[in-house]
């Protein structure tokens, strides 16, 4: 790997110790500060420093972070522009690992663990919704999970939008959608402004993944995924993985959260989470004859608990 020119430098009082991630618009470093301690330090990529839309989106992410204050949302510490025009954002350093990597190694997770994760994420997203912000990119890659404390934190608002944004102030052109196709709500594919119910759909996809280790669609390409989202229903939860059958209340909650029509979903993301949590609280599995496979699966859950 080539040497990163910013690693080891000091920007606005933050010592950039290690590059830990890179996206399409920003590079993330683990950094230390005399007052704030260890932080995650995001820097807008050099090639985008003169891109007005990229700069506006970066600054909007920072401003949204200051508006959404919640224990399950990483805290925004500081943002600004350093010497040379470099835009930066310093946020709380969250313990654990990305939920994406944890799920890849461990899903399906025990029902009680799924309930805790989904409830925490729902509370975090609801805190955004009451501030008129829709996240639009809710996915395991944007969630940090600490298995030791079972604490989940929402990481960023990179492509979030305000629900009351004026058409002339939009940063996404009509007809173009933003988000991650595997978790994006069908109505977002038109590129129109989405409601908080779109985040509920994404959270239901995450819950589906944690409960089964799979996603509700089986497309093998983006084009196929696009078509399935628009024209096909999601695979029922209890059809996803042979040998894992949840009780009807669990499946009903998940599938309602995944409804193609936003009006058919729960009234809010916390309503979805509370209904699912209640369904998972006792006897989450359906009363079906014990097969050898089902017995082994339940044994795995008990071992993880």
Low-pLDDT regions: 166-177
Query: How are the strands ordered across the major sheet?
Result: 1-2-3-4-6-5
Q: Strand tally, please? A: 11
Order of helices and strands: EEEEHEEEHHEEEEHHHHH
The CATH architecture of the largest domain comes to Orthogonal Bundle
In helices, the fraction of residues equals: 25-40%
Mean pLDDT: 88
CATH class of the largest domain: Mainly Alpha
CATH superfamily grouping of the largest domain? Transferase(Phosphotransferase) domain 1
Description of the structure:
The protein is globular and about 60 Å long. It folds into 2 domains: 10-92, Phosphorylase Kinase, domain 1, CATH 3.30.200.20; 97-304, Transferase(Phosphotransferase), domain 1. The relative contact order is 0.11. Helix content is 34%, strand content 17%. Strands 1-2-3-4-6-5 form a 6-stranded antiparallel beta sheet, covered by helices on one side. It has a 3-stranded antiparallel beta sheet with strand order 7-9-10. Strands 8-11 form a two-stranded antiparallel ribbon. Strand 5 (76-81) and strand 6 form a beta hairpin. The protein is an alpha+beta fold and 305 residues long.
């Amino acid at each position: 790997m080539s040497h990163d020119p910013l690693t080891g430098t000091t920007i606005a009082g933050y010592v950039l110790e290690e590059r830990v991630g890179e996206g399409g618009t920003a590079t993330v470093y683990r950094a230390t500060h005399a007052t704030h301690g260890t932080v995650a330090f995001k820097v807008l990529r050099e090639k985008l420093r003169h891109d007005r839309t990229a700069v506006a989106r970066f600054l909007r992410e920072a401003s949204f972070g200051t508006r959404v204050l919640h224990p399950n949302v990483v805290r925004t510490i500081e943002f600004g522009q350093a010497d040379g025009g470099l835009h930066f954002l310093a946020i709380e350093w969250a313990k654990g690992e990305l939920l994406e990597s944890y799920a890849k190694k461990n899903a399906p997770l025990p029902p009680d663990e799924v309930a805790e994760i989904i409830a925490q994420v729902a509370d975090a997203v609801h805190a955004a919704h009451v501030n008129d912000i829709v996240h639009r990119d809710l996915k395991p890659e944007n969630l940090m999970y600490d298995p030791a404390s079972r604490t989940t934190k929402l990481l960023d608002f990179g492509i979030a939008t305000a629900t009351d944004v004026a058409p002339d102030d939009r940063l996404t052109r009509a007809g173009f959608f933003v988000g991650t196709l595997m978790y994006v709500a069908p109505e977002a594919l038109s590129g129109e402004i989405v409601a908080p119910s779109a985040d509920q759909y994404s959270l239901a996809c995450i819950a589906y993944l944690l409960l089964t280790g799979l996603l509700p669609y089986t497309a093998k390409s983006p084009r196929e995924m696009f078509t399935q989202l628009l024209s096909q229903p999601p695979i029922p939860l209890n059809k996803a993985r042979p040998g894992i059958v949840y009780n009807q209340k669990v499946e009903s909650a998940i599938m309602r959260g995944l409804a193609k029509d936003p009006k058919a979903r729960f009234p809010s993301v916390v309503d979805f989470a509370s209904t699912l949590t209640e369904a998972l609280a006792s006897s989450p599995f359906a009363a079906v004859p014990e097969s050898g496979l089902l017995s082994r699966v339940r044994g795995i859950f008990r071992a993880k608990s």
